[in-house]
Amino acid sequence: MSQGSPINQPSTTTDAQNDKHIQLPADGAENQKSSERVEELFYPPGHSRHLFTSRSWPQRRLRSPSLKWHKQYETPRTGRVLVIDYIKKDRSKEGMRKVTAQEINNIEGLRKIYTNPDRGNEAVLRVFHVQNASWATHFLLRKFNISARDDLVGTDFGHYVQNKHRQRRGKPLLTGKSWKTTHDPWRAINRTSFGLDYLKPYKVNPQTQGSRTATGKMMELSCYDEDDNPAYGWDVYPQRLSCYIQHKEPPSEESAVPGVLDVQNPYENGPTQKDPHEYFPRLENLDNGNAIIIFENSCSGSIDDTIVEARSQWESRWRRLPFYLAYESHDVSNDDRMALECMKIILADVWKSVSESWDRLIDLSNVHVDCLQDRIYEQPADESRAPELWTNASHWLKVERLVTIHTNVVKEMQDNLKELTSEPTIEDNWLDKSPGDMERIGLL
To answer: What's the pTM?
Structure first.
């Protein structure tokens, strides 16, 4: 099999939430019997196989497979979890790379992923996008031993995920933080993580304007109404994004042989006698594979108001990453290499969504400044605008500080991710464009 060729490396995708599954045809072939996973080949409908040969490469770039979200949904009150599994080569059909996607709205559906023997060990990389789902957050923090209080294998990242941003004198205190890459020899994994607060503007609804509460609100922005008059248009609230990255390393001799390490295995002892009901992680019950978990919460409770929106371009893109990798001549025949390349793209997309949210906020802020200038220039001698000017100056200082925090976090994550794998052949191009995007925003 040739490496990195779209001819031999087609992609398959599953929407596991659908009740009906349709296998898309390739090259006019008849539909095969529907199965639990919808498989999509590289050859888009209407394009024959010969178009992809080296002798007759198309003059223009063909569109990637059009994957639809077949099941309609409303914003779930209990939150949502999107689970994307990139399946191992030996679990996919020959000449294909299978990807499964499933939307989950309850804890039972999340537990079935691990209780189902067919899905337990078939994923070379598993991605979770958790939106406003505290039940899923609690489950995943334990499943990946993120909330461990042990000084040897634990961090305070779980505490950061479960708690909202701090406040000082009733005002939100916006922060951002990265956690250095750590190695767990008993689980044979390396892991790192980051979290940051960002600003989300919400359009003001005139019908409910009188009933709005200012709890946690960062600022208010003006806009121009239909008559081009300055008006109250946006409420800006702080929200939090957290991301956990885990990479599975080949087992070392030290971790394979008991007693070689001069440290007591933290997974051997059970709960203390003082609290027999205390939760204790069991090594065999943890998820020790390659994984990315994106935790998000929105002030509105809507899954469309997070920085990575539900069923957005990013989620659709993640469902067909093997297609992009093979099209760009990346090697997707090797499971470990494909998993790392997918992780690089997903993390770059997350930071791209952060920079896009900044672009949108800056555009709205520029309109707000124009509105403020118009009001002041109409009556330059009116000193009643002085408090508003001081308030805006204070807000812009906080915004500038938050941009600096984001820039520092992405640069720290670049260094942390380079330590995620010990393979010298892996190219260290993690987040290669993300620091430049944040520096560009800092100059706006």
So the answer is: 0.81
For residue 4, the SS3 value is: coil
CA dihedral 436, 437, 443, 444 (to 10 degrees): 160
Distance CA 41, CA 44 (A): 7
> At residue 81, what are phi and psi to the nearest 5 degrees?
-130, 125
Reported as type and span, the H/E element at residue 82 is: strand 80-87
Residue 50 φ then ψ, to 5°: -65, -15
For residue 197, report the phi and psi dihedrals to the nearest 5 degrees. Answer: -95, 145
Q: How far apart are alpha carbons 433 and 444 in whole angstroms?
A: 17
> Which phi and psi (to 5°) does residue 302 adopt?
-95, 140
Q: What is the pLDDT of residues 5-57, one digit of tens each?
A: 333 344 444 454 443 333 333 333 333 333 333 333 333 444 443 333 433 34
For 65-68, the CB contacts below 8 A with 24+ separation are 65/11, 65/13, 65/24, 65/40, 65/41, 65/320, 65/323, 67/13, 67/15, 67/40, 67/316, 67/319, 67/320, 68/15
C-alpha span between 322 and 41 (Å, rounded): 11
